[in-house]
Amino acid sequence: MYIPKASQRKLTQVQPYRWTRQEYEKMVEIGLFPSGTRLELIEGEILEMAAHTSYHAAATTIIQRYLERMYGAAYHVRVQLPLALSDDSEPEPDLAVVEGLPEDYWHAHPRTALLIVEVAYSSLDHDQERKRHLYARNGLPEYWILNLQERQLEVYREPEGEEYLSQMILRTGDVVSPLAYADASIAIVDLLPR
């Protein structure tokens, strides 16, 4: 049997299949995934999200309360719900401040947000790198990471390409104000476990 030399063979590169948002939503709709599985679609890959610790749950709820008070009735705060960013990405950020009312999204998930917040411990690298680039690339104006490992808030603003031009680290003695409500502030210490 003749086997051609490597230089004579046409090599085929194996590539992972990249899911579209429409394919992913259909799989969710028909119940393809086990009940209770926490997933999100990032750049065509279906990723399983980590379970929430009590710190994560408490911090998410605390931030939610602050943001709901600040943004008022013209916006609503979505908690761990899909954001239809692009044809191949449907992340479920811990918090997303979007325009309008929940009933405005009966037929489709929001495509953008004024502010995204991720509460991070075990997901910190993923949130600082892959999600930061994803959110910047899709023009989300403001992205916060409540970094439970370092006990700080990372604030990213001014998206350009895959980066945010403005990056700040705020610690327990600092306060943060959302871009949309510069006159309102949250003490970082109030967002962190005691």
Strand and helix map with partners:
Elements (H helix, E strand, L loop, with lengths): L20 H9 L9 E4 L2 E4 L5 H18 L3 E5 L15 E5 L15 E6 L3 H14 L4 E6 L4 E9 L2 E8 L4 E2 L9 E2 L7
Parallel strand pairs: 5-6
Antiparallel strand pairs: 1-2, 3-4, 4-5, 6-7, 7-8, 9-10
> What letter string, H or E per element, gives the SSE order?
HEEHEEEHEEEEE
| Distinct helical segment count | 3
Identify the CATH architecture.
Answer: Alpha-Beta Complex
Q: Percent of residues in helical segments?
A: 10-25%
Task: Give the rounded overall mean pLDDT.
Answer: 92
CATH topology: tt1808, chain A
In whole angstroms, the N-to-C terminal distance is 72 Å
Order of strands across the biggest sheet? 3-4-5-6-7-8
Beta-strand residue fraction: 25-35%
Which regions contain 5 or more consecutive residues with pLDDT less than 50? Answer: none
Assembly state: single chain
CATH class: Alpha Beta
Question: Notable features of this structure?
Answer:
10 strands, 3 helices, single chain, alpha+beta, globular, two-stranded antiparallel sheet
Provide an overview of this structure.
By secondary structure, the protein is an alpha+beta fold. The chain has a single domain, classed as tt1808, chain A (Alpha-Beta Complex). 21% of the residues lie in helices and 26% in strands. The strands form three sheets. The protein has a six-stranded mixed sheet. The chain has a two-stranded antiparallel ribbon with strand order 1-2. It has a two-stranded antiparallel ribbon with strand order 9-10. A hairpin with a 2-residue loop joins strand 1 (39-42) and strand 2. It is globular and about 75 Å long. The mean pLDDT is 92.
